[in-house]
Amino acid sequence: MSTLASSSVPFESTDENTDTQQADTSKLGIASILANVTEAAVVTNLSGKIVGYNRQLNDVVPHIHDAHCITDLFTLSSKSLNTTCLTNIGDTVGRRSGSFPIQLTRIHTGAESQPSIPTFVSMLRAPDTRLPAALLYKLDEHILRFSMRLRQIHIAKKEHARYAKQATLNAITDPLTGLKNRRFVQSFMDLQWHGQFRKGEDSVLILFDIDHFKQINDTHGHPVGDEAIKVFADCLLSQARPTDVVGRWGGEEFIVLLTNCSCEQARVYLERVMTHIRLLKVPCDQGHISMTASAGYCAFSQAKSVEHSFTQADTALYAAKSNGRDRYKKASA
């Protein structure tokens, strides 16, 4: 049932002063030993170097291929031994017969704590000389499966959280520009409307419309039109403050809500952003095209409701377009 996943490696002593005679691991038949072990198991030489492991261990410790020593995978968490080093366990086990119980803790790259794993370690001796040759570690299968299941649940929860976060972002984001979408802006405006009265602040709603956008689409095609929308959106966002909300209302219409802002401060923003819009260049087959935009704005303090402020700003936008475009206009008081 089980297979050897790592070939046998001859033992090389790492302690020149040791008095313990040790046998070569190549005569043990490690593959045969592991094939008869039902638990997850690993075999090391007496210095801790991994010389074989079975499929069960590979299933629960996938990164075992990268490990060279037992200490690459586990730390000793037993308190009954007089040593804290796994490579010294052979001295203790060699004085006993049968299996010796220890507690191991998996080394994990994540920050979460790892449960200790009951493990039984026994000495493998050379069949001809009976000298100590290797150590066989048998890990408790039930604890390992439980640990693996916990890890799978943890990974699944992280994946679910990532997908949930992405779904939330998709629900409030315009896919073409990356700006906030109409749904989010509407909700935010409602919250801002009610919050400003408690804080004694004002907000200014601005509506933008790209001038002659249909002509851009008809003349240069929809891909160029989409690029023009993205370039325009980036311009609006780059000139806004982190506390402001910039969104795409639909088509070539955009909305900006300047929070904690007066009409005079909004005018300064509009002067700046309109200048940048005139400098925009959108690549096309003929080289590049420029664009202009019209805008209308209304302070919340001028309106009776969010809907009223939007209507006022929309009326001002229409007046700006009727008066020649490439300009902004404030809503009438």
Brief write-up:
By secondary structure, the protein is of the alpha+beta class. It has two domains: 25-151, Beta-Lactamase (2-Layer Sandwich); 173-330, 2-Layer Sandwich (Alpha-Beta Plaits).
Can you tell me about this structure?
This protein is of the alpha+beta class and 333 residues long. It folds into 2 domains: 127 residues, PAS domain (Beta-Lactamase, 2-Layer Sandwich); 158 residues, Reverse transcriptase/Diguanylate cyclase domain (Alpha-Beta Plaits). Helix content is 38%, strand content 22%. The chain contains 9 helices and 13 strands. The strands form 3 sheets. It has a 6-stranded antiparallel sheet. α6 crosses α7 and α7 packs across α8. The longest helix has 32 residues. The radius of gyration is 36 Å and the shape is elongated. The N terminus is likely disordered. It comes from Alteromonas genovensis. It is an enzyme of class 2 (transferase). One of its GO terms (molecular function) is diguanylate cyclase activity.
Number of helices: 9
Number of domains: 2
- Report Rg: 36 Å
Range of helix content? 25-40%
CATH topology of the largest domain: Alpha-Beta Plaits
Average pLDDT taken over every residue: 84
